[in-house]
Please model this.
Amino acid sequence: GNSGEDVSDGDFELYDPLASVSEPDIPAHLIIASVKPNPVAERAIVRFGIPSDGKVSITLYDVSGRVVATLADGLYTAGYHSVSLSAGAGLRSGIYFVSLQMGSETSSRKIVISR
Model:
């Protein structure tokens, strides 16, 4: 019973928001792909992608800009990876920022720790 009409000459695409979207094997740029779950109660997985092999640093900052944890600091291959974040290590409820750095590039994401 669904019907529709397109009166333009432009291309169009049907989109199903429930369909799985695949990501490329190697991202085009540095990215924190996800932090799940967010808000974080005890533990979360930080998924990130890097476009080339290199040294990566992932740091957790509080809202004052203080470093509260280092989640990763080492060499990684191009592609997607994940690290664990433990909120049980004396972190209070509040807003934090996860920062991914590789060379001069950075990517960050806001997370909430809720107890």
About this structure: The CA atoms of residues 58 and 72 lie 5 Å apart. The chain is about 0% helix and 50% strand.
